[in-house]
């Protein structure tokens, strides 16, 4: 682990991908400012999980930013429509109903404001295009274009010391992300993926195991040869 | 006035520029959804003025979106530092301390989410580069880059019916904006420009008449040959 003389913002949902990115940044020697967003997501439990994961990393700052949920009135992920189940052959070209309009654009823009306010020049985000490129704002061409735009938008970018967007998972599939996470000692049992949790008889939130996000997670652990129930 | 079969989002602060843009869009026949942001600005009075202006335009929707003020901890405009006074020779190349990190990037990103959620494809913003190009996020190259990015970020943009950013004031100076506003019957007396208002003995908020924004406004009215006190 290197000297902690550099800082980074990590966009951190409490999910499998962004938690792996968090641990990647920590392991690379960054002082991490993790930023989580509350935007009316049905799976708000992910924020509780994000808090628990941060509790394991005492030197990490955690910023939770609310975003007005009324902006996102046509996404199944914010309660407007049914979350699809059992789509085992997810079409990479089709944009799913769980798409949230301009979500990563907003997440990155707010992260950039926070970064610039704190003289931080690197922003990590856990996008990965191989497994699930249906979301337009998870693709590499968007990230590349955003990086250009954010440097035109900011004082930092107009100087010689601009803002860089880091996507360490960009070329990994879910199996590879899980393998990387295992190497980095990611607490998988605390990460949350399910879009559509239910409450069981003991008042615990449980993953549905049938939404796109659950299916990708289950397949990823299967492909990586890891039994998730044995690692918690 | 044209048929109101098209809609637009207008980023609307209650200031001189964005109110002129609001009236421009209304006069061009758009159904307008005006979006105002509360981000911890010292001159929060501008939002009260925005509400009053919308009251004059009954068919206009007004959306007020809070943005966590703790994101912007190094701007004089959000109370961190002194607002400069009496800078009669504003240097166009120097970024002022009233710069708010990534503000227009966030404003446009949130407006894009709202637009896409409501099947709107045009977003108006009152940037103008001639009078005051010190803010990086008010320049044409930023807007052009953002337009590319937002269309990569969104479902709308990935389809054939993308999002367009309209900047009708881009090439106007303050005098010309005021002349346009006069033609459009903008209620100038309700618009608010001052960064650093004070409360007078009758508990009214008053403009300081010395900050950059006041000076540009005063000069604009002077150059346009309009006596502001006679038009309210």
Task: Tell me briefly what this model is.
The structure is a homodimer. Chain A is of the alpha/beta class and about 230 residues long. The two termini of chain A are about 25 Å apart.
Number of strands of chain A: 7
What is the rounded distance between the termini of chain A? 25 Å
SSE pattern of chain A, N- to C-terminal: EHEHEHEHHEHEEH
Q: What share of residues are in beta strands of chain A?
A: 5-15%
Q: What is the overall shape of chain A?
A: globular
Which CATH C-level class of chain A is it?
Alpha Beta
Order of the strands making up the biggest sheet of chain A:
3-2-1-4-5
CATH topology (fold) name of chain A: Rossmann fold
The count of domains of chain A is 1
Helix content of chain A: 25-40%
Radius of gyration of chain A: 17 Å
Largest sheet of chain A: 5 strands, parallel
The computed structural class of chain A is alpha/beta
**CATH architecture annotation name of chain A:** 3-Layer(aba) Sandwich
Structure in words:
- By secondary structure, chain A is α/β, with parallel strands linked by helices.
- Chain A has a single domain, classed as Rossmann fold, CATH 3.40.50.620.
- Helices cover 34% and strands 13% of the residues of chain A.
- Chain A is built from seven helices and seven strands.
- The first copy, chain A, has helices at residues 16-27, 45-55, 103-117, 140-153, 155-158, 174-183, 212-223; strands at 6-11, 30-38, 61-66, 122-124, 164-166, 198-199, 205-206.
- In chain A, the strands form two sheets. Chain A has a five-stranded parallel β-sheet, with helices on both faces. In chain A, strands 6-7 form a two-stranded antiparallel ribbon.
- In chain A, helix 2 links the parallel strand 2 (30-38) and strand 3.
- In chain A, helix 1 packs across helix 6.
- The first copy, chain A, is globular and about 55 Å long.
- The mean pLDDT of chain A is 90.
